[in-house]
């Protein structure tokens, strides 16, 4: 397959930033006050127009049965059409919450245990990693080396961004490396963790991770437009993701094969489906209260990129303590996309916030600070 006409400098930058991230909705607006809506609308319009701003933003706020959809900019620079809740998009590292949902559902069924180790479930992995537990994988205290930082992985990806990796062999790239620290002793966000989570789920059930997603997550939560492909194509219609620095913006929606991130960030979904997901995931609708209590044992650690307010890490979920209150969720970024999904602990109030450009601390710290401030304003509007 031929490669896209992407300048080498941009392709290399896209590859390098990858290692750092990885309910039916009506568009009618239900009011929490017209002044509040106008203020939020102004905030996202200013963000789109500002330096390095993304071409598009769409936010879905839901309180009970009432939905509000706010958007700025466009879904596609060529056509100029606005973003819509049923547009497909790359959900980036919010996919890690999906692997968490699968694993914790299996814990609830007694198929997996949070104290299961890699040695017990995945004996083919390096013996030096054997003591790592499922719990440590889910809260990023495992110490596993991050395969997306491996020089050979990056060489292959840079030479052919659409290279089809075997997702079940991604950890082979770092199989000769020791753990970064003693398991459980500290926090370090790693894309390897959620690859190992998916492999543990497959080993315990004899079922593919893709099938587990369908049976344990998509169907119970009513997700209609969510999938885990291995190629680079996006289903229509979709939010086009862009590389915005330097201008002019360049469409990178289909620059990469999702096989290189798989359970760590390869899922495609829509704002509508992500709203359904977080409203079920945050309160623990897929498993009982004992599992929810384990999921919410917080440790020091932030999502990547950091979410609004002060961040703490749980089991494939983060706690965002803002000036207006607490929400639970996950963030993610991928070339062309930055995501936040969050909800109250009971799931009744939720926010899905999508930006069509990659924004993270290493690439654009000032822009990330502005984004987090905007996201916090949306959380405050949600919680009022």
Provide the fold topology.
Layout: H1 8-18, H2 34-49, E1 56-63, E2 66-73, E3 89-90, H3 95-108, H4 118-121, H5 134-138, H6 151-159, H7 191-205, H8 209-221, E4 242-243, E5 250-251, E6 268-269, H9 271-281, H10 289-295, E7 299-300, E8 310-313, E9 318-322, E10 325-334, E11 337-343, E12 349-355, H11 365-383
Helix pairs in contact: 2-11, 3-7, 3-8
Structure commentary:
By secondary structure, the chain is α+β, with helices and mostly antiparallel strands. It has eleven helices and twelve strands. The model is unreliable at 1-32 (pLDDT under 50).
Count the beta strands: 12
Compute the CA-based radius of gyration. 19 Å
Rounded mean pLDDT is 92
List the secondary-structure elements in sequence, H or E.
Answer: HHEEEHHHHHHEEEHHEEEEEEH
Shape: globular
Relative helix content? 25-40%
Strand percentage:
15-25%
Describe the structure using short key phrases.
384 residues; alpha+beta; disordered N terminus
What does this entry show, briefly?
With 384 residues, the chain is an alpha+beta fold.
């Amino acid at each position: 397959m031929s490669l896209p006409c992407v300048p080498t400098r941009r392709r290399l930058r896209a590859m390098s930033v990858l290692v750092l991230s990885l309910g039916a909705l009506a568009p009618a607006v239900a009011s929490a006050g017209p002044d509040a809506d106008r203020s939020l609308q102004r905030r996202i319009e200013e963000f789109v127009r500002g330096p390095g701003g993304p071409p598009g933003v769409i936010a879905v706020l839901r309180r009970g049965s009432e939905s509000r959809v706010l958007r700025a900019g466009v879904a596609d620079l060529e056509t100029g059409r606005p973003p819509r809740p049923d547009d497909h998009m790359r959900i980036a590292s919010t996919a890690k919450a999906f692997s968490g949902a699968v694993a914790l559902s299996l814990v609830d069924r007694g198929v997996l245990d949070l104290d299961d180790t890699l040695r017990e479930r995945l004996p083919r992995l390096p013996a030096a990693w054997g003591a790592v537990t499922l719990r440590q994988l889910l809260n990023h205290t495992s110490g596993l080396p991050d395969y997306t930082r491996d020089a050979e992985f990056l060489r292959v990806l840079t030479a052919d961004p659409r290279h089809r990796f075997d997702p079940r062999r991604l950890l082979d790239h770092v199989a000769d490396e020791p753990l970064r620290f003693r398991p459980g002793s500290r926090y370090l966000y790693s894309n390897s963790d959620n690859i190992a989570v998916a492999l543990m789920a497959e080993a315990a059930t004899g079922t593919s991770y893709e099938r587990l997603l369908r049976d344990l997550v998509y169907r119970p939560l009513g997700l209609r437009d969510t999938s885990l492909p291995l190629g680079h194509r996006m289903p229509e219609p979709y939010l086009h993701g862009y590389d915005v620095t330097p201008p002019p913006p360049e469409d990178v929606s289909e620059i990469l094969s999702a096989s290189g991130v798989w359970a760590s960030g390869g899922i495609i979904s829509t704002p509508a489906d992500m709203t359904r997901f977080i409203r079920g995931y945050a309160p623990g609708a897929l498993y009982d209260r004992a599992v929810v209590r384990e999921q919410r044992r917080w440790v020091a650690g932030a999502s990547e990129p950091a979410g609004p307010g002060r961040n703490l890490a749980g089991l494939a979920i983060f706690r965002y303590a803002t000036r207006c209150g607490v929400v639970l969720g996950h963030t993610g970024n991928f070339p062309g996309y930055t995501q936040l999904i969050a909800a109250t602990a009971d799931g009744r109030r939720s926010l899905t916030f999508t930006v069509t450009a990659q924004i993270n601390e290493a690439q654009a710290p000032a822009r990330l600070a502005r984004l987090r401030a905007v996201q916090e304003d949306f959380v405050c509007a949600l919680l009022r």
